[in-house]
Amino acid sequence: GAGVSQTPSNKVTEKGKYVELRCDPISGHTALYWYRQSLGQGPEFLIYFQGTGAADDSGLPNDRFFAVRPEGSVSTLKIQRTERGDSAVYLCASSLKPRDTEAFFGQGTRLTVV
Amino acid sequence: AQRVTQPEKLLSVFKGAPVELKCNYSYSGSPELFWYVQYSRQRLQLLLRHISRESIKGFTADLNKGETSFHLKKPFAQEEDSAMYYCALSSGGSYIPTFGRGTSLIVHP
User: I need a surface site. Which of A8, A36, A45, A82 has the fewest CB within 10 A?
Assistant: First the structure.
């Protein structure tokens, strides 16, 4: 079976533009996480979905960041009015059930804001 | 708040030497600790977790609650162990893993 899939793998955008990053979790996984990883740092938590709802969005840095998971499977991370500081690798992970402690990661989307 | 500290950004050893990657954490409750690994051009993947008490690829890690540490050890490093290693903590409430900044392990031939 396929692992967690993220598209695009690379995205270059101009400052001020809007971007969407997509995550396809492993089929049947109910928990989904978004992380952001800047150069030389570990993954930093952004938001956690349990099913369709955002169970914890405390890691979103500001209101330019938003994520959805309308059918409890695919998730989209949306960033408005991008800034150069948003440049990072955005990682998505999923796990089978609530409180399952093994998260499976995607390859990430490398976002570069120029 | 939960926090994970990996004091070494880089650890360089020769093949056959022992390896210890350090991880310290801060959390007031009973945490679950993990080690994740990322090999070159591959995705982040779970290496081991403390509740399993298992040895994976020759690596072991023991949770020391007194010292709030979860160091990763291997008695004889291999070249294929070269990778980024991340220590992570998950609390009983949210189960959202918090990661350290990672340690790059380089094993020279």
Answer: A8
Closest CA to A6 of A112, A87, A111: A111
Q: Spell out which chain A residues touch chain B, with contact meaning CB-CB distance below 8 angstroms.
A: 3-4, 33, 35, 40-45, 48, 56, 91, 93, 98-108
pLDDT digits (tens, 9 = 90+) for A91-114: 999 998 766 668 899 999 999 999
Mean pLDDT of A34-63: 93
Cα dihedral sign, A92-A94-A99-A101: negative
Cα separation, A92 vs A51, whole angstroms: 15
CB contact burial B69-101 (16+ within 10 A = b; e otherwise): bbbbebeebeeebbbbbbbbbbbeeebbbbbbb
